[in-house]
Amino acid sequence: MSAAKSPPVARTTGVQRLSRLLHVDIPEVWVRFLLAIVGLVLAFAAALFSTVSRESGNLWATLILASAALLLAVIVGLTTVPYLARRVAAARIRDAFDYDVTRVGIVYVVAVLVIGIAALNTGNNLLYIVVAAMLAAILVSGIVSAVDLSRLELDLHLPEHVFAGRTVLGRIVMRNPRSWLPSFSVSVVSLKKDKAEKWQWMPATFAFPPWGAPGKQWLRLPDRKLRRVSEADATRNIFEGSAYFPYLPAATELKADLELCFDRRGRYRQESFGLATRFPFAFLTKTRRIPLPREIVVYPRVEPADEFFEILPLITGEFETFVRGRGYDLYRIRESMPEDSARHVDWKATAKSGSLKVREFSREDERKLRIVFDNPGTGAVAEGAYEDALTLAASLSWHFAGENTEISFVGQGYEGSPDIYRFLAYLAVLEPGPGPPVLDQLQPSDDYNIILTARPHGSIPTALWACSYFVFIGQES
Q1: Which of 219, 305, 387, 447 shows its CA 20 to 30 Å from the CA of 12?
Q2: Is the CB of residue 299 less than 8 Å from the CB of residue 167?
Q3: Nearest-CA neighbor of 268 among 293, 289, 290, 288?
Q4: For residue 239, which of 204, 274, 264 has the smallest C-alpha distance?
Q5: What is the rounded average pLDDT for all residues in the chain?
């Protein structure tokens, strides 16, 4: 019997040990950094040898070595410096120097320049002192504003259910964990989408020489490149306004209500928020980024529109007729109503009384309603008609969910949960696209169906006409 072999022990390279020592989880950064150091050392050596060749009078050696030194320096600058700046220091440098000059600051700088020019022309020492003091005030303003925002904590509480077009309240919570230092004039702002947020990283590979085959290239390193993202792909922000806290004492938590209103349905996500202050002199606006990912799903509008008021009486009448007509025990004979079906007419009672009479049967079970949204394919209907259909489906669902009705939902990719909020969340992010045919798989049952579809009349299964009300998207019902 052969002895079992122990698993091979993974050896730790020097680069990995260095990355662990410096608490960096990306060894590629250090590989790129070490390669840059080697390239710069070679470039420096080539420059030294070119100097020696020039003193010895060897023109061709001087030209070749100088060109090699310049070429190595350019390669290191183009392939390493931008990469390291993006991966290591970009965020820290951006946060440390995220200042905006205010209008007051611009006027102040202009005044400093005027006094400085006067000091240069006159040579007056007092004017030099004044200019130095004014420049020091700008430096103090930047330092104090950075200290004012340091260690502040932010939290945002969002409502659970949000409908498009309706104003809801969120809550901003600001905490100052410092034991003795208060904060002044702090605003919570929504960060503008800068260049970093309008681009996406895509995987790529840095290789040298770039024209060689993958097996014959001297160097191949994983890299990431930026790809432009269209405005349609950009995620919409949750918070676009601002909340102002004039004074935040030490070791204190303050709250502020925030009004939110979303014009369109969909998914809103925001990765970070900003804390801004102009304290103490209002020369500069210091902004500190707070990573605080938040996501909210905005349901379609449920405010009844004109189409809702037009079809709701028709749906209600056919639904009531369907419910009353499912039993077998005669409940009563009464006068005919406009919404009654002709199949319930009692011709004998009509002949005796001279007026149209209908039979009303007893109901054997509860009122069951099923709302079906047959999602049309891409380009099948106009965008406005599609949004109106989603709004109508949400409004009907919300209306009948509040009635004495056992309601269920059917849609492409929908799991069939009877929870109204789950169906509204499904409608909130739904887009036109291909999917399994819903109506072909829908079987008649005791439920009465409200079906929203873009399919032509002739393609509807015959069995659904007797137990359904159809709303044809982008067509006349």
Answers
A1: 219
A2: no
A3: 293
A4: 274
A5: 76
Q: Render pLDDT for 122-178 as a digit per residue (tens, 0 to 9).
A: 878 888 899 899 999 999 999 999 999 999 999 999 999 999 989 999 999 999 999
Q: Is 335 helix (H, G, I), strand (E, B) or coil?
A: strand
Distance CA 455, CA 387 (A): 17
Radius of gyration over every alpha carbon of the chain, rounded to an integer in angstroms: 36
Q: 347 burial class (0-12, 13-18, 19+ CB within 10 angstroms)? A: exposed
**Which residues have C-beta within 8 Å of that of residue 194, sequence separation ≥ 6?**
none
- CB atoms under 10 Å from CB of 364, counted, come to 11
* Of 109, 110, 117, residue with least CA distance to 135: 109
Q: Could you tell me if 453 and 475 are in contact, meaning their C-beta atoms sit under 8 angstroms apart?
A: no
Render pLDDT for 176-193 as a digit per residue (tens, 0 to 9).
999 999 999 999 988 765
Other C-beta atoms lying within 10 Å of the C-beta of residue 32: 21
Q: What count of Cα atoms within 13 Å lies in the side-chain half-sphere of residue 24?
A: 17
For 465, other C-beta atoms within 10 Å of its C-beta total: 12
Per the listing, tokens 């060689």 go with 212
CA–CA separation, 408 and 311 (whole Å): 20
- Cβ atoms of 32 and 80 within 8 Å: the answer is yes
Cα angle: 253, vertex 255, 260; to 5 degrees: 150
Gap between the Cα atoms of 462 and 445, Å rounded: 14
pTM confidence score: 0.62
